[in-house]
Design goal:
globular, alpha/beta, eight-stranded mixed beta sheet, binds nicotinamide-adenine-dinucleotide
Length: 286
């Protein structure tokens, strides 16, 4: 297992930009690929801002920031990932675009390059099956926001090789993350537990006729949660949580996995949580 020298990140949205930032901060040459240069620049702008704040807070010196930024190159051309030892995919959460991308990556990347997906709810095995070299495909499931959340789940698909899994594990650790290995099952580890649990909490809102504020207070004070469930779902995004619940329900068919109707109604009304300014709570846009 050779050490990763160059990494590609495909899709620089909320997750991909954070993952690319982690890579350059860890000293790794990184190629970020977006569908347009404008989107790439926008992502880079977000992480310039994040690093500038770290400098202001004294957590990073200006020289280290400049060096980190110098390790990132942006492209719209998949061919630019040819020299990467590891490519991490963080595009839209839909099976077909991911399968198309992995088939294209297989054509472009060296045969020994490891291909990782950051999918939350899709099957890594189904994504890997779009290639003829499934053994090099694994899951690297980071949490949002990637630069701050300590965990990465390293997911073994049906045909993943030990070598690919250990390369991803070692790389996750090198990024400063706490890495755990698991098999490719719906929701992997944390979401498999957390999604039905949050859904239970939100059903209690109606069952126990409690306010969102009081439910959050109860779970913080009575269960030791650092953040209440309503605040947490607002942070994750109501749409993201509904989508993840639907995906888990589709696979496991357990009623607790299905999104509570109240959440679906909120999503349809555009109440998406923090990002839309209103969810269970109201947020100041500034
Ligand atoms: N947001 C989260 O909380 C979270 C947490 C863990 C994992 N994930 C997973 O990470 C992945 C990305 O999620 P996100 O929240 O960053 O999404 P996002 O919408 O913020 O970003 C997706 C990016 O991919 C690009 N893209 C879209 N379709 C593409 C295509 N067909 N080919 C190439 N690029 C394309 C878009 O331009 C966009 O910048 C998803 O698989 C998601 O399930 C998300």
């Amino acid at each position: 297992m050779a050490q990763v020298q160059k990494v590609g990140v495909v899709g620089l949205g909320a997750m991909g930009a954070g993952i690319a930032q982690l890579c350059v901060e860890a000293g790794v040459e990184t190629v970020g690929r977006e569908v347009s240069l404008e989107l790439g620049e926008r992502a880079k702008g977000r992480f310039d801002h994040f690093l500038a704040r770290k400098v202001e807070k004294g957590k990073l010196d200006a020289e280290a920031r400049d060096a980190a930024l110098g390790r990132l190159s942006l492209t719209t051309d998949l061919e630019q990932l040819a020299g990467c030892d590891l490519v991490i995919e963080a595009i839209v959460e839909e099976l077909e675009p991911k399968r198309e991308l992995f088939a294209a990556l297989e054509r472009v990347c060296r045969p020994d390059a490891v291909l990782a997906t950051n999918t939350s709810a899709l099957s890594v095995t189904e994504i890997a099956a779009a290639t003829s070299t499934s053994e090099r495909v694994v899951g690297m499931h980071f949490f949002n926001p990637a630069p701050l959340m300590p965990l990465v789940e390293i997911v073994r698909a049906e045909l993943s090789s030990d070598d690919a899994l250990e390369t991803a594990f070692a790389f996750g650790t090198r990024l400063g993350k706490t890495a755990v290995r698991c098999h490719d099952t719906p929701g992997f580890v944390v979401n498999r537990v957390l999604i039905p649990l949050l859904n239970d909490c939100l059903r209690v809102l109606d069952e126990a006729r409690i306010t969102a504020e009081d439910l959050d207070t109860a779970m913080r004070a009575g269960a030791g949660w650092p953040m209440g469930p309503c605040e947490l779902v607002d942070l994750v995004g109501i749409d993201v949580h509904v989508h993840a619940s639907e995906a888990l329900y589709e696979k496991l068919r357990e009623p607790r996995m299905a999104p509570p109707p109240r959440l679906v109604a909120m999503k349809n009304a555009g109440l998406l949580g923090r990002k839309s300014g209103r969810g269970f709570f109201i947020y100041d846009a500034s």
